Amino acid sequence: MNYDRFDIKAIAEELDGHFNKYDMDSYTGQCSQCGNFVSQSEDCCAECKRPGVWFNSKIWRDLYGNPTSAARELSGELPTTATGLLLLKRAGVRFFPSVAEERQWARDENTLGYVTMEDVIKYVVDTKKRRGRAAVNHALNLANSKYKQYKAEQKDLEVTPAEETPTTEMW
Ligand SMILES: [Zn+2]
Question: Could you tell me the residue range of the domain that residue 116 belongs to?
Fold first, then answer.
C-alpha cells in the first residue's frame, strides 16, 4: 500500500458507545509509517508525507473529493526499473496498476533491454499520443508481445548441442 486508509465508520465501530457523533470531525488517524496523527483535513501525513485517504469523512470529501477515486489513484506499484520509471513519467502517472504489471515490465526490460523498452515507450507516447493509464496499458501489451516473440525466436534457434568431444589427457 502506498497510502494509509482511514475510515470514520471503522473508528465509530471500534469505539462503539464511546464514539461521539457530534464531534466526528475531530477524530484523527495514525500514519502507519511514522506514527504521526493525521487529521481529516489532511491528505498526507504532515511529518513524513505518506498519503492518507479518509473514508466517510465530510471534511475530507469536501477538500479532496471522492475517497474511492483518490484511493484508486494512489494504489498501484512503484517502478523498479529505469524504463519503468521513464514510462510512468512520460505517461504522467505515478504507479503501475498492480504488482503483476510492474513485474511484467521488469521481466521485459531484463529480457529485451533498455533500448527496446525505450522504443516501446516512444511509440506509445510519441507516435500513438497516448497518456495516462491508457499509455501504460498499451506499453505493457506491446512489451509483452515483444517478449513472447523474442522467446519464440529463441526456441527456434535452439539447436541440439554438439556432441561433446572427450577431453584427452595431455600428460
Ligand atoms: Zn507519517
Answer: 82-154
Question: How far is the centre of ligand 1, averaged over its atoms, from the C-alpha of 103 (Å)?
Answer: 27
- Give residue 154 CA to ligand 1 midpoint distance, Å: 48
Residue 145 lies in a domain: yes
Q: Which residues lie at CB < 5 A from ion ligand 1?
A: 31, 33-34, 36, 45, 47-48, 50
Alpha helices for 24-74 (secondary structure H):
58-64, 67-74
Q: Which three cell numbers stand for residue 134?
A: 491508457
Q: Are residues 144 and 86 in the same domain?
A: yes
DSSP label at residue 24: G
Give the chain's domain count.
Answer: 2
Mean pLDDT of the chain: 92
Q: How many CA atoms lie within 13 A of 2 on its CB side?
A: 16
Same domain flag for 138 and 98:
yes
The reply to whether 166 falls in a domain is: no
pTM here? 0.62
pLDDT digits (tens, 9 = 90+) for 10-66: 999 999 889 998 999 999 999 999 999 999 999 999 999 999 999 999 999 999 999
Q: How far is the CA of 42 from the centre of ligand 1 (A)?
A: 12
Whole-number Å distance, alpha carbon 33 to ligand 1 midpoint, is 5
Length in residues, the chain: 171
